[in-house]
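User: I'm new to structure prediction. If I give you an amino acid sequence, what do you actually give back? Let's try with this one:
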Amino acid sequence: MLERGGGISADIMGPDLRVLDGIASWCGGLHGSMSLVDALGSLAAGFGADASVLSRHQKQQDRPRAVAMMDAKSDDAEAVTIRRPFCQDVMGYFFTKARASTVWFLSDHLSDGNWVSTQTLENWRATRVIEEVVVVVLAGSLRQQDYIEFHFARPLEYSEKLELEALVPTLVRSWSGRKTGLVTQAQMDDRMIRHRAAAQEHRLKPEASILGVSNPANLSRAEFRVCVMLSRGLSVKGVTEELSLSEATVRTHLRSIYSKTEVSGMPELMYRILSSENDEAGRLRQTR
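Assistant: Good question. You get back a string of structure tokens that encode the predicted 3D arrangement of the chain. For your 288 residues, that looks like this:
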């Protein structure tokens, strides 16, 4: 609809501008101007998608692996967010046979009596109320194929499907001209984030008792015995005599204990041991 004076209505310009902005961000991200996750998020937002996954399938693998994922509800602690690609579930038999630049709509398969859904896909759709999934084959070779998928919480109009199909060549061309090593770097970044999160989860809490029954620092039996001897007021030499170990062996145990308990040396270790013992004694008195 044209506004008075020949301008274009915001109702028409709004969605189109979001799509253009999303494609611009996507192209920029493929050349390193932003993270691949942010670029994918901008592209998905431009299309009005609720979730999106960029994935790669190596021919020797059973399932594709996510390269980047975006979910509009990622900040909602109570929401079930997307955790894996669904391109294989949607495409079924054609998953490894489809050519680059082809686009697949879940709604088309739902009316096909020969197509069989998977329980995983049905669970995802029911949990998040996903009405449409669109899969685009970005690239394909004898070794691997790349896919991008968009999940919508509403059915797409026929005109919207046509618009998506018209944009597929742009998505494919931009993907083919991406920065070298982009996928490898994204996968390395993802592994690093997961490893850091796991390390943080298992990190020894400052208030944890080193000599607690649960052994929160994961000390070996020999290391635990050294800490017990130290808690009784023995010096390093006294520990060597009590445990019949050489001083070199005890100091090797101490270096490992320092690392596991994240302390800088003997003074801090003794403080942690004695303070945790005092805290434990106080808790026991309170429960009597």
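You can read the tokens as a compact description of the fold. Here is one thing that stands out. The chain has two domains: 10-198, 204-287.
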